[in-house]
Automatic annotation (TrEMBL):
<dbReference type="Pfam" id="PF11875">
    <property type="entry name" value="DnaJ-like_C11_C"/>
</dbReference>
<protein>
    <recommendedName>
        <fullName>DnaJ homolog subfamily C member 11</fullName>
    </recommendedName>
</protein>
<dbReference type="Pfam" id="PF00226">
    <property type="entry name" value="DnaJ"/>
</dbReference>
<dbReference type="GO" id="GO:0042407">
    <property type="term" value="P:cristae formation"/>
</dbReference>
<keyword id="KW-0143">Chaperone</keyword>
<keyword id="KW-0175">Coiled coil</keyword>
<dbReference type="InterPro" id="IPR052243">
    <property type="entry name" value="Mito_inner_membrane_organizer"/>
</dbReference>
<keyword id="KW-0496">Mitochondrion</keyword>
<dbReference type="InterPro" id="IPR055225">
    <property type="entry name" value="DNAJC11-like_beta-barrel"/>
</dbReference>
<keyword id="KW-1133">Transmembrane helix</keyword>
<dbReference type="InterPro" id="IPR018253">
    <property type="entry name" value="DnaJ_domain_CS"/>
</dbReference>
<dbReference type="GO" id="GO:0005741">
    <property type="term" value="C:mitochondrial outer membrane"/>
</dbReference>
<feature type="transmembrane region" description="Helical">
    <location>
        <begin position="364"/>
        <end position="384"/>
    </location>
</feature>
<dbReference type="Pfam" id="PF22774">
    <property type="entry name" value="DNAJC11_beta-barrel"/>
</dbReference>
<dbReference type="InterPro" id="IPR036869">
    <property type="entry name" value="J_dom_sf"/>
</dbReference>
<comment type="similarity">
    <text>Belongs to the DNAJC11 family.</text>
</comment>
<dbReference type="InterPro" id="IPR024586">
    <property type="entry name" value="DnaJ-like_C11_C"/>
</dbReference>
Length: 535
């Protein structure tokens, strides 16, 4: 809005809410409160500095400490830089309180006895009639980050593994320093009970805006001597969504690898080729991302090499705000059939690889595919959906309780504003009727229930006919892209729920109707809103 538009709106609202225009003590009190609010808003918006702060950061920017030391007559860009500086200072004060914990728990299950039975060898053994399902391996790892300064971070990580009764563990400490906007370096020290001390160095560097390189050097000490290792990765952005990688690994399991990864809003595609000792392979994989609220993804891959051929397919879906559940079926020669279940909960990962059979059995593939789907849909319907619904209701109730006092005050202000608008609205209607202009017949704001499946839900709307008519000027009504709850005479009747504005209006003697979501812009009159009365 220009300064002239602001002045015009300020004058109009001052005339509407001026206390001297109202003799009734209650209306006069309401008018004084609303008049003061209008004056406070104009003070912010008429000052170039405070308006720039409000335009960029809203009320939280005005309430932030430190603005009193900012030199006046600064441009919006300079004010943005100052705000970001103050934010950085606040972040640094909270730096010591923040860690970034990450963890993985993997439990390997041997369920081959379900499909590969050797009954003839164990007919006389008690309990042999029931399949034996065993946990044959486990892996647990955890890491935390401790920011030391704005550029230095300490990382502590550890892991424990066991397989078929044998296991071990290790602990690592790393110190990372961001050397510039283009790169960082990391020193790593580690030790374990199965292997000796480890010393490593990692370097990252942006060579150009579209190209970067990472290098990882390591020295592993053991009873057999020192085993060095070197891994270098060169990556380049081929276009906005595609990255190409070249990797060279020397030392333990030396190999050369090249891959191309294309990631878009709806898909993820990877093709890779590796030549190495002992593994050489070719890989192609594709993942489709559905644009739904649950962020559903389906994926498939084919991997072939000296070790054999593996086909893998699966899906993953968001089951709550912080949890993603996925499952994949792996079918290969000579690996057999496996089912892999993974749950990501915030920064924690739980992985359950279940080996079903060493052979290619159609029954194993069928049950590995259908079983998880049946279990998921049953759990989603009986457990997950009711739980999420209860959580949403709980959060809404908590939000309503925390804002109850504020909403009550807003409601009282809105009702007072409507009473103060009555005289002005009467004059506006008379003027519009005289020229067959825009008359708001009825207007409602809040939650409408149109879906028959949600008929048990309660409609929560308020009548906003008078406030909308008061905003009509020269037979036009224009509302910008923002929540309508902040308009004069409005308030939020259903905190935390989706809201709409429904308007029935008359223009040139013809009825029109329109319904718009809360944050969408609205311009009336429009020919498309006309109600067809031919029938």
């Amino acid at each position: 809005a220009s300064s002239e538009e602001l002045k015009a709106a300020y004058r109009r609202l001052c005339m509407l809410y001026h206390p001297d225009k109202h003799r009734d003590p209650e209306l006069k009190s309401q008018a004084e409160r609303l008049f003061n609010l209008v004056h406070q808003a104009y003070e912010v918006l008429s000052d170039p500095q405070t308006r720039a702060i409000y335009d960029i950061y809203g009320k939280r920017g005005l309430e932030m400490e430190g603005w009193e030391v900012v030199e006046r007559r600064r441009t919006p860009a300079e004010i943005r830089e100052e705000f970001e500086r103050l934010q950085r200072e606040r972040e640094e004060r909270r730096l010591q309180q923040r860690t970034n914990p990450k963890g993985t728990i993997s439990v390997g299950v041997d369920a081959t006895d379900l499909f590969d039975r050797y009954d003839e060898e164990y007919e006389d053994v008690s309990g042999s009639g029931f399949p034996q399902i065993e946990i044959n391996k486990m892996h647990i790892s955890q890491s935390i980050e401790a920011p030391l300064t704005a550029t230095d971070t300490a990382i502590l990580s550890g892991s424990l593994s066991t397989q078929n009764g044998n296991g071990g563990g290790s602990i690592n400490f790393a110190l990372r320093r961001v050397t510039s906007a283009k790169g960082w370096g990391e020193l790593e020290f580690g030790a374990g009970d199965l292997q000796g001390p480890l010393f490593g160095l990692k370097l990252f560097r942006n060579l150009t805006p579209r190209c970067f390189v990472t290098t990882n050097c390591a020295l592993q000490f053991s009873s057999r001597g020192i085993r060095p290792g070197l891994t270098t990765v060169l990556a380049r952005n081929l276009d906005k969504n595609t990255v190409g990688y070249l990797q060279w690994r020397w030392g333990i399991q030396s190999a050369m690898n090249t891959s191309i990864v294309r990631d878009t809003k709806t898909s993820h595609f990877t093709v890779a080729l590796q030549l190495g000792i002992p593994h050489s392979f070719a890989l192609i994989s594709y993942q489709h991302k559905f644009q739904d609220d649950d962020q559903t993804r389906v994926k498939g891959s084919l991997k072939a090499g000296f070790f054999g051929t593996v086909v893998e397919y699966g899906a993953e879906r968001k089951i709550s705000r912080h949890s993603v559940l996925g499952a994949a079926v792996s079918v290969g020669v000579p690996q057999g059939v496996s089912l892999k279940v993974k749950l990501n909960r915030a920064s924690q990962t739980y992985f359950f690889p279940i080996h079903l059979t060493d052979q290619l059995l159609p029954s194993a593939v069928f049950y590995a595919t259908v079983g998880p789907l049946v279990i998921y849909f049953a759990m989603h319907r009986l457990i997950i959906k009711p739980y999420l619904r209860a959580q949403k209701e709980k959060e809404l109730e908590k939000q309503r309780e925390s804002t109850a006092t504020d909403i009550l005050q807003k409601k009282q202000e809105a009702e007072g504003a409507v009473r103060l608008m009555q005289e002005s609205v009467r004059r506006i209607i008379e003027a519009e009727e005289s020229r067959m202009g825009l008359i708001i017949v009825n207007a409602w704001y809040g939650k409408f229930v149109n879906d028959k499946s949600k008929k048990s839900e309660k409609v929560k709307v308020i009548d906003v006919t008078v406030p909308l008519q008061c905003l009509v000027k020269d037979s036009k009504l224009i509302l910008t892209e923002a929540s309508k709850a902040g308009l004069p005479g409005f308030y939020d009747p259903c905190v935390g729920e989706e809201k709409s504005l429904r308007v029935l209006y008359q223009f040139r003697g013809v009825l029109h109707q329109v319904t718009v979501p809360d944050s969408e812009a609205l311009r009336i009159p429009k020919q498309s809103h006309r109600i067809d009365t031919d029938g």
